[in-house]
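Appendix B. One record, verbatim.
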Amino acid sequence: MSLREEYRRFKTSTGSVKASIAKSILKELIKFSGEEPYWERVEGELKIKEYEAKEVLLFLESIGEIKIRRSKNGRRLYVLTLKNLRKNPITLDKWIKVQ
């Protein structure tokens, strides 16, 4: 299933199903975290727009699954967060509570 279809399922689902779909989208986004320019690569290869990916990350932060890093002025650092999750898969497993 393409990530575009996963995002559509994410938008229409609720509860634990929505969380599990968001986690699968997160895993795909992490694979591209080392690529530059990140958002252009995601839009080109995964067919998901920047604001849609950020919406998934914000949802995961709202339910306490991940913590998006912030700069000193309070801006969210999405790509840096994904890079850190890629470098620390143990943290990723702990954050998304996979056992």
